[in-house]
Design goal:
The complex is a heterodimer.
Chain A (H helix, E strand, L loop, with lengths): L2 E3 L4 E5 L4 E3 L2 E3 L6 E7 L6 E7 L7 E2 L2 E6 L4 E6 L8 E10 L7 E3 L5 E6 L1
Parallel strand pairs in A: 2-12
Antiparallel strand pairs in A: 1-4, 3-9, 5-6, 5-10, 7-8, 8-9, 10-11, 10-12
Chain B lengths: L3 E4 L2 E4 L5 E7 L5 E7 L5 E7 L6 E2 L6 E3 L9 E3 L8 E8 L7 E2 L3 E5 L1
Parallel strand pairs in B: 2-11
Antiparallel strand pairs in B: 1-3, 3-8, 4-5, 4-9, 5-6, 7-8, 9-10, 9-11
The chains are: A mainly beta, B mainly beta.
Chain lengths: 119, 112
């Protein structure tokens, strides 16, 4: 079974600070995808970033960047120059095939990190 | 605009009653999912469907039922057998092996 640990339950930062959200996962699968989702107070989950297990190149997309290290099963997410609108719960979710054939994926969610950005 | 529509947004139910949550997508996605979220926790998979007329149990399927008669629709019934149904329910869809899941806005069910 897969397991995801987001050790940071709550983080508070002041606007314009950088913040890194940690994620560590356990899996015996060799092929998988990794996702970060954001859940604002409205409740809907918003897709942020995706990484496949074959590609450890770290990237930057706007104010978002991520650090994927397959050897340590970590997939950390950084927001640069945080803004008040970034306040939300952030979920790390590795994705694994539900059935060997077919496209359905099992997302295993961590318990989330509540990020509060103060003005 | 393409997306996922869930209804109702809020629902109150008396103990012993069945209730059905609607989920419709116009993204032409093959796979659809139902997740449950309890306060302060992540999402847990209830049921999923890869194609029309086929669906499979997820991690917490007991007390729930689904159908997939049309590609765009995947309703969830919370039956009276579900012992603790008060929760936030999220429907999602995806396409392809690496496709991200698109989520609806959720349905909040409260059992009185």
């Amino acid at each position: 079974a897969q397991k995801v640990t987001q050790a940071q339950t709550e983080i508070s930062v002041v606007e314009k600070e950088d913040v890194t959200l940690d994620c560590v996962y356990e899996t015996r699968d060799t092929t998988y995808y990794l996702f970060w989702y954001k859940q604002p107070p409205s409740g809907e989950l918003v897709f942020l970033i995706r990484r496949n297990s074959f590609d450890e190149q770290n990237e930057i997309s706007g104010r978002y960047s991520w650090n994927f290290q397959k050897s340590t099963s970590s997939f950390n997410f950084t927001i640069t120059a945080s803004q008040v609108v970034d306040s939300a719960v952030y979920f790390c979710a590795p994705s694994f095939p539900l059935i060997s054939s077919g496209s359905a994926r099992q997302l295993t969610f961590g318990s989330g990190t509540q990020l509060t950005v103060l003005p | 605009d393409g997306g996922i529509t869930q209804s109702p947004k809020y629902l109150f139910r008396k103990e012993g009653q069945n209730v059905t949550l609607s989920c419709e997508q116009n993204l032409n996605h093959d796979a659809m999912y139902w997740y449950r979220q309890d306060p302060g926790q992540g999402l847990r998979l209830i049921y999923y469907s890869q194609i029309v007329n086929d669906f499979q149990k997820g991690d917490i399927a007991e007390g729930y039922s689904v159908s997939r008669e049309k590609k765009e629709s995947f309703p969830l019934t919370v039956t009276s057998a579900q012992k603790n149904p008060t929760a936030f329910y999220l429907c999602a869809s995806s396409q392809g092996a690496g496709g991200e899941l698109f989520f609806g806005e959720g349905s909040r069910l409260t059992v009185l």
